[in-house]
Amino acid sequence: MADKHKVHPEKDDKKNTLAFGWIVLIVSIAVLVGGFIWLLV
Fold it and tell me: What are the TM regions of this chain, as residue ranges (predicted)?
């Protein structure tokens, strides 16, 4: 199990980077939408 994990460590890093990218994208969209609503109110 431990040896198998060492063979493909870049696979986990790529998945984490992708998840982080999505989180940043969602947060930035939420901030833009929130700011736009705040300007309208």
Answer: 20-40
Question: The whole model's pTM is what?
Answer: 0.56
Classify 2 in phi/psi space as left (phi over 0), alpha (psi -120 to 50) or beta. alpha
Calculate ∠ Cα 14-15-16, nearest 5°. 90
What CA–CA distance (Å, rounded) separates 16 from 22?
10
2 or 10, higher pLDDT: 10
H or E element, residue 8: none
